[in-house]
Amino acid sequence: MLGLKLLTDPRWANIAESNLEEILSDHAWCEQKAASNAITIITQNPEHEELVHELTAIAIEELGHFKMVIDIIKERGYTLRRERKDDYVNQLLKFSKKDGSRNQAFIDRLLFAAMIEARSCERFRVLSQNIKDDFLKKFYYDLMVSEANHYTTFLNFARKYTIDVDVDKRWKEWLDFEGELIKSYGTKEYIHG
Ligand SMILES: [Fe+2]
Ligand SMILES: [Fe+2]
């Protein structure tokens, strides 16, 4: 799926469903961070008109997802918990190239975003297929479709704006790195847990 090297064990969905308040809170912050990340990319690359427009739409959509999740939290009588450190995302951030050319850093920022979209999409798929709550099944199915589109957008922009990066080669490196990294996860009730 989306080139990912390792698919999530479906039993992770049972762990997630056993603590909905935690997974929903964590999920809300993932959406907030996705919106913030899109805004950061826009801020750093204003010269790319198409990117500015498309990522503005994504930022709005991600904040819409944040709103949907906090509404569910409220409806169910849960509390939005404080944001926690996302170890998985921090490891991906460390893998990102920051020391090369400006274009290399830009392309890697897009691939970093594509990577998180791909794994989030896969996790939403596992939730939609395995949890028992009918409302959340549908909710996660819809989000899976949306994040798959974001994945495509980020990857296509990397291909469009590359100057000195072999995007297919670098994307393969990302997939290999993530495939190893994700082996240490899949046991906690977080979206990337
Ligand atoms: Fe989202
Ligand atoms: Fe997304």
Automatic annotation (TrEMBL):
It comes from the Bacteria. This is tRNA-(Ms[2]io[6]A)-hydroxylase. It holds the Pfam family MiaE. InterPro entries: Ferritin-like (IPR012347), Ferritin-like_SF (IPR009078), tRNA-Hydrxlase_MiaE (IPR010386). It comes from Sphingobacterium thermophilum.
